[in-house]
Write a structure and sequence with these properties.
It is built from 12 helices and 56 strands. The chain is globular. By secondary structure, it is mainly beta. The chain is about 15% helix and about 45% strand. The longest helix has 16 residues. The strands form 14 sheets. The protein has a 4-stranded antiparallel sheet. Strands 2-29-28-27 form a 4-stranded antiparallel sheet.
């Protein structure tokens, strides 16, 4: 637990309870508010409380709620600056709650990664103590690499095993209901972020969900062609509504909870009586699938959006179409209507949102700014703001008075499919193809900091042999060179016309080599910052590059299924290695430069003799039909480690050509692997957003760090403890493995 926590645990239980228990009565009423402040900015107190079996993380978060208590605010010792510090710390705990519930050892890393920006004395003192934590191995951020508080994101909720297609929020803002491609709906407590229960019954993906105003029932729609009505008090299915001939993709419910309106790929809308479970009538008029539907607060009108590029306004009294709204140049994916029923906002595959006057049927204005199709839209209760979600992975908040974008919310690592706003307009809840639900604070969405780095996914990183520089390659077409000690960006190299997928650096640190989607390899002089030459020959994207120890040769792997060996002194291809039946994803070279090891989407690894230019042997063993994404080899050339989409790493004996053991802990595809110079540990990065440090003698995970997005690449400095990683959002993480010496002294590794 740590020295402080161990000492506390040795105390009598009544002492532990008194020290870790309720803070306000103990300190405010005794006239000692300063002690309350001190405890909540004391890292040792924070760690002890979340680790104590009688208290835990939620109890600690609740302690911070006392900051704004009337007794505190009016207390003579009340300090607004300290209150601000406490508010920031609590925000970090909220943002990291899903991570810390799984792994308490990440507390220091989450605090450092999110708060290093803030030059507030209380925070900096707390972080100084956090850096010294040695109770277990952990990965310490050297820079402020995680989303800081006050940038919108409150917390991330994981639980679905596939994409989240829709979310709905109860009117009291206490619950969210999510619908997923995993065939289930989940009900979440938005105060604690905990799953309350799962609703099962659909036989296929759930694409739509709505909740009644009283919060007692939810209605879902699925590609099993049905709607289901659920009692949220009993957690039971009440009714199944059958009538559509294809996937049910949209649902709205009237304010009185008596009717539901559904849309489907079969083109008509259906109006249902939620008391009897019977279809009342059908609305026909769309010439293609109905993707979205909304209903006015008075229950008299419905507005639908379709793949026929139009919206239609329906009179639910006369059961007739009133008029059609035309203007989008592609499919309409989402529609929301203001509380007064006078305006609607639509989101489209054409990348825009449009605001409509529902009295005149005219377009008021168009909102532009997303870089990809727009999939979701919601309007605040006061009608002043809209929020949209896009396949560009972002949400945007719009001022409907001016028609201008207010700010962008980033954090999802895949398309945002759905968004809802709480009735008080303070929070938004989004669902994404990244399988998560995120809760956003709409009152403090503006970014206080701009982070340096790439504007798109970081696909590759390398470290110079002297440990002074890191080099990253990104989908933004650039290579960036960093000071590994400070994490500062030194300069960028530009020249590729498409995404940079791979980078490597020569042992003398003078040259870097990059591979790109533009099918080329470029060799760069890191001293002059010039491009030396371009290597052409691959007929498809270059996915991997490696350089031998003397810096004279490089090996590249491509989606054209081949590897090519290059002479870096003259910039010429020496020979091509063929044998893989699918894309080559990664390549590594032995320290002696005589062997290369490649891995492929054909699920195999191949070992190549670079002297004879022949394949030596093939290794198979990862789960059938799942690609091998990453490979690394030990300096002595006796072992290789591969990472696969099957969520595992495998350690191979290259002498016997046999699997030694499997490393299991990741919950999603393993994208990257590296081995420490002493060959005792490995580091892996995964789509599950984590970096893990493995002890290769025991096969155990000894440290983890959770980033903001899928970890795409990682590298280790020569010191064996400094790690560089890149993720799908463009972040570069500079981390240091701490507590390893103490861990080894205890004989635990």
């Amino acid at each position: 637990m740590g020295e402080f926590a161990d000492k506390l645990a040795a105390k009598p239980l009544f002492y532990q309870r008194a020290y870790l228990g309720s803070l306000l009565p103990n300190h405010v009423k005794s006239g000692n508010l300063e002690k309350y402040y001190q405890k909540l900015t004391d890292f040792n107190f924070l760690m002890a409380k979340i680790q104590h079996p009688e208290f835990g993380l939620q109890a600690l978060i609740d302690d911070f709620d006392l900051v704004d208590d009337s007794e505190v605010v009016t207390h003579p010792e009340y300090n607004p600056e300290t209150a601000k510090a406490l508010n920031l710390i609590q925000r970090v705990l909220w943002m990291s709650v899903d991570i810390l519930e799984r792994d308490r050892t990440q507390l220091a890393g989450q605090l450092l990664g999110r708060l290093l920006h803030f030059n507030i004395p209380e925070i900096q003192v707390m972080l100084k103590v956090a850096k010294q934590w040695k109770a277990a191995p952990w990965l310490r951020p050297l820079t402020s690499c995680l989303t800081p508080p006050r940038r919108g994101l409150l917390r991330t909720i994981d639980g679905h095993s596939d994409s989240v297609n829709a979310v709905a929020v109860t009117q009291d803002g206490k619950r969210a209901i999510s619908a997923s491609r995993d065939n289930t709906l989940k009900v979440w407590d938005l105060t604690t972020g905990k799953e309350e229960f799962t609703l099962t019954g659909h036989s296929n993906s759930v694409y739509a969900v709505a909740v009644t105003a009283d919060g007692n029932r939810a209605i879902s729609g699925s590609d099993d062609y049905t709607l289901k009505v659920w009692d949220l008090t009993t957690t039971k299915e009440v009714l199944t509504l059958i009538g559509h001939k294809s996937w049910v993709t949209a649902i709205a419910v009237t304010a009185d909870g008596k009717r539901a309106i559904s849309g489907s790929l079969d083109n008509p809308l259906k109006v249902w009586d939620l008391i009897t479970g019977k279809e009342e009538f059908t609305l026909t008029g769309h010439s293609n699938s109905v993707n979205t539907v909304a209903v006015t607060a008075d229950g008299k009108r419905a507005i639908s959006g379709s793949s026929d590029n139009t919206l239609k306004v329906w009179d639910l009294i006369t059961r007739k179409q009133e008029f059609s709204l035309e203007g989008h140049s592609n499919s309409v994916n989402a529609v929301a209507v203001t509380a007064d029923g006078k305006r609607a906002i639509s989101a489209s595959f054409d990348g825009t949102l449009k605001v409509w006057n529902l009295t005149t049927g005219k377009e008021l204005f168009t909102l532009t700014g997303h870089r990809a199709l727009v999939k979701a839209a919601a309007i605040s209760a006061d009608g002043k703001r809209a929020i949209s979600g896009s396949r560009d992975n972002t949400l945007k908040v719009w001022d409907l008075t001016t028609g201008k974008e207010e700010f962008t919310l980033t954090g999802h690592s895949n398309s945002v499919n759905s968004v809802a706003i709480t009735a008080d307009s303070k929070r938004a809840i989004s669902g994404s193809w990244d399988n998560t639900i995120k809760i956003w604070n709409l009152t403090t969405g503006k970014e206080e900091f701009t982070s340096e780095g790439h504007s798109n996914s970081v696909n590759a990183v390398a470290v110079t042999a002297d440990g002074k520089l890191a080099i990253s390659g990104s989908s933004d077409k650039t290579i960036t060179v960093w000071n590994l000690t400070t994490g500062d960006e030194l300069f960028a190299l530009t020249g590729h016309s498409k995404s940079v997928n791979a980078v490597a650096v020569t042992a003398d640190g003078r040259r870097a080599i990059s591979g790109s989607w533009d099918k080329t390899i470029k060799v760069w002089d890191l001293i002059t910052r010039d491009e030396l030459f371009t290597l052409t020959g691959h007929s498809d994207w270059v996915k991997a590059v490696a350089i031998n120890a003397d810096g004279k040769q490089a090996v590249s792997g491509s989606l054209d299924k081949t590897l090519k060996v290059w002479d870096l002194s003259i910039g010429k291809e020496l020979f091509t290695l063929t044998g893989h039946s699918d894309w080559v994803k990664a390549v590594a070279i032995n320290a002696d430069g005589k062997r290369a090891i490649s891995c492929s989407s054909d699920k195999t690894l191949k070992v190549w003799d670079l002297t004879t230019q022949k394949e030596e042997f093939t290794i198979e063993g990862h789960s059938y039909s799942l690609t091998v994404n990453a490979v690394a080899v030990t300096e002595d050339g006796k072992r290789a480690i591969s990472g696969s989409r099957d969520k595992t790493l495998k350690v191979w004996d290259l002498t016997t050509r046999k699997e030694e053991f499997i490393l299991k802990s990741h919950s999603d595809s393993v994208k990257a692997v590296a081995i420490t110079p002493n060959e005792k540990r490995a580091i892996s990065g995964s789509r599950d957003k984590t970096l893990k440090v493995w002890d290769l003698s025991s096969g155990n995970v000894i440290a983890s760090f959770t980033g903001e997005n899928s970890i795409a690449c990682c590298a280790i400095a020569p010191d064996g403890v400094t790690i560089v990683a890149g993720d799908a959002s463009g972040r570069v993480y500079f981390l240091r493995l701490e507590g390893i010496a103490e861990y080894l002294e205890k004989g635990m590794a």
